[in-house]
């Protein structure tokens, strides 16, 4: 009897620690923003229209009120246990034509920012 009480007490004490329970539980990763991959960026060509860029990458997360020719694609992902990564892609236009691509991706030929 005394042994089982000790065993149950130790088990309750072990499982009541937040770090143990936190480590044992599965937490979904949290994705926010535009999911942009290198294969999508590779589809961009110099001179594409804004509609064509939206077709390839989706609507931009941020459009500057002060620079209408600059679009920002931001993407963050956080794993269930706190590791976080962020990716950024900036697309600029010259009028209606795609001019440059910069950020955390390799720019296609002819679109590298100077």
Keywords:
114 residues, alpha+beta, Beta-lactamase Inhibitory Protein, Chain:B, domain 1, five-stranded antiparallel β-sheet, 4 helices, 30% helix, rod-shaped
Could you walk me through the main structural features you see in this protein, from its secondary elements to its overall organization?
With 114 residues, the protein is α+β, with helices and mostly antiparallel strands. Strands 1, 2, 3, 4 and 5 form a 5-stranded antiparallel sheet that branches. A hairpin with a 6-residue loop joins strand 2 and strand 3. The protein is rod-shaped. The N and C termini lie far apart (77 Å). The model has no long low-confidence stretch (mean pLDDT 83).
Concise summary:
The protein is of the alpha+beta class and 114 residues long.
In CATH terms, what is the fold-level topology of one domain?
A: Beta-lactamase Inhibitory Protein, Chain:B, domain 1
Question: What overall geometry do the principal axes of the alpha carbons give?
Answer: rod-shaped
Order of helices and strands: HHEHHEEEE
Q: Which architecture of one domain per CATH?
A: 2-Layer Sandwich
- Percentage of residues assigned to helices: 25-40%
The rounded Rg comes to: 24 Å
């Amino acid at each position: 009897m005394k042994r089982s009480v000790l065993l149950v007490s130790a088990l309750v004490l072990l499982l009541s620690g937040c770090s143990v329970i936190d480590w044992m539980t599965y937490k979904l990763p949290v994705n926010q923003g535009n999911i942009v991959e290198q294969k999508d960026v590779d589809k961009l060509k110099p001179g594409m229209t804004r509609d064509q860029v939206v077709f390839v990458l989706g609507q931009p997360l941020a459009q500057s009120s002060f620079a209408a020719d600059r679009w920002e694609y931001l993407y963050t992902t956080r794993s269930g246990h706190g590791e976080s990564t962020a990716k950024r892609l900036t697309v600029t236009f010259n009028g209606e034509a795609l001019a440059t691509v910069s950020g955390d991706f390799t720019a296609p030929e002819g679109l590298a920012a100077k």
